[in-house]
Amino acid sequence: MEPEIQERIENTVRRILKGSDMEEMTEHKIRKQASAELDLDLSEPPYKAFVKQIVQSFLEQQVEEEEEEVEEERGERRKEYDDDGDLIICRLSEKRRVTIQDFRGKTLVSIREYYKKDGKELPTSKGISLTEEQWSAFKKNVPDIEKAIRKMESRIM
């Protein structure tokens, strides 16, 4: 399929999708309407697959945008990444943060101290990185940890 035809199909299908009631619209109806507008039979296998791909992409984009709107309404923050591309889950203090990182093909939850150098925040050796299994074991025991903290605090007071 020629790039020019692909672009025409994509633009037409997306325009139809944007103006449609998604409760009523089907992929077949979109293909039929686009076929009529483009004077092109989009029911042929390569065109049909291409239209399906455009529709799926459009729907995924709509879901992402709706999720972002919900996050904004709830006041939730946007995802933040550090200079290494690791997802910052939260900042515990000015120098400490929790990140999710990939290290040699393993996902790690890293709780680490950082320092600034040349305008970048870099990790120190002070901290801990937990594998998924270790994180699960830790998470499972959080209620016991909280209970022990409350018990210890009640002794101090």
Description:
By secondary structure, this protein is an alpha+beta fold. It has 2 domains: 3-74, no CATH class; 80-156, Transcriptional Co-activator pc4, Chain A, CATH 2.30.31.10. Helix content is 52%, strand content 25%. The protein has 5 helices and 5 strands. The protein has helices at 3-18, 27-38, 45-74, 132-140, 142-156; strands at 80-81, 87-91, 96-103, 106-117, 120-131. The protein has a 5-stranded antiparallel sheet with strand order 1-2-3-4-5. Strand 4 and strand 5 form a beta hairpin. The radius of gyration is 25 Å and the shape is elongated. The model has no long low-confidence stretch (mean pLDDT 88).
Low-confidence blocks of residues: none
Strands of the widest sheet, in order across it, are 1-2-3-4-5
Strand content: 15-25%
Structural class: alpha+beta
Supply the number of structural domains: 2
Approximate helicity band: 40-55%
Task: Indicate the CATH topology of the largest domain.
Answer: Transcriptional Co-activator pc4, Chain A
Number of helices: 5
Round the mean pLDDT to the nearest integer and report it: 88
What would you say the CATH architecture of the largest domain is?
A: Roll
Give the biggest beta sheet. 5 strands, antiparallel
Any idea what the shape is? Answer: elongated
The CATH class of the largest domain: Mainly Beta
Element order: H for helix, E for strand = HHHEEEEEHH
Per DSSP E runs of 2 or more residues, the count of β-strands stands at 5
- Radius of gyration (CA) equals 25 Å
Distance between the termini: 76 Å
Which homologous superfamily in CATH is the superfamily of the largest domain? Transcriptional Coactivator Pc4, Chain A
